[in-house]
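Notes, p. 3: input format for complexes.
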Amino acid sequence: MKTALITGGAGFIGSHICEFLLGKGYKVIAMDNLATGGISNISHLRSSKDFTYIYHDVSKHIVVNEKLDFVLHFASPASPIDYQKIPIQTLKVGSLGTHNTLGLALAKKSKYVLASTSEVYGDPLVNPQPETYWGNVNPIGIRGCYDEAKRFAEALTMAYHRIHQLDTKIVRIFNTYGPRMRKNDGRVVPNFITQALKNEPMTVYGKGNQTRSFCYVNDLVEGIYNLMLSNISEPVNLGNPEEHTILEFAELIKELTKSRSKIVFRPLPIDDPHVRCPDISRAKKMLKWEPKIELKEGLRKTIDFFKYNKNQD
Ligand code: UDP
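Output follows (313 residues plus uridine-5'-diphosphate):
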């Protein structure tokens, strides 16, 4: 039986990875300090004998007393509102947390997966973004704490790969949505769905002509699993290449929730990327992966979660 440690295992994406790997017959250790994750995301897994949860801040030294076949470093705030509230923790989990998890993987001779982000491309001047694009990041802006932490994390991961021959993979995750996003995490999907369900004004920032491309979490997790089993050490974009303006997205959520909300316009946050869309040619070719779940289908499942799940933090 293979064992995987998932840092950020009680988070949105981390908890879906834990569940997926348990389903594949892995022994799973979720590590989280609950800075932005929630125990309710993993409470349904805790009865499994193959699942362990450890409360720990991975910016501090990590001790695990068993063999590990995989270390997946997914701990980090990921919502702009969250990481701007706790920028120092965000920088620490991306730097010290990456160092600690890489060191652990080296000691345990594990394979290593780093959760990176489309934010490494900043406000991109190339659209869609291929992995070969180096990005356009403001290092000292309000998003710099996240973007630069992840860029450092990628650099450190490649250094461990080159110097220690550690078997590493880097996934650049684009906007992902689905059940277990936090209602109040400030991101566009939870905001629009909660506002629409309450018939409250839906807050579009700027003119709403900035674009994003939304990938349903189950699709993403399949891609991460393919990457985890591959021997690809260069970064791989995972996301859905269907690009929409934020205004279109607000209108779609309004329609799907049959909401009476008005769409209102609010100032565009500083350094908000104008466009974002993954070029997934590498994932298609090397992982034989592409997303399958249609936006409307994924949104319906997410809306149901926000409507009916009483267990949210
Ligand atoms: N956004 C919006 N209204 C909201 C929340 C976000 O118009 O209530 C916009 C935000 O300005 C950005 C896009 O939606 O252009 C996606 O924002 P999110 O915070 O989800 O993540 P990002 O992709 O910027 O990291």
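The longest strand covers residues 111-117.
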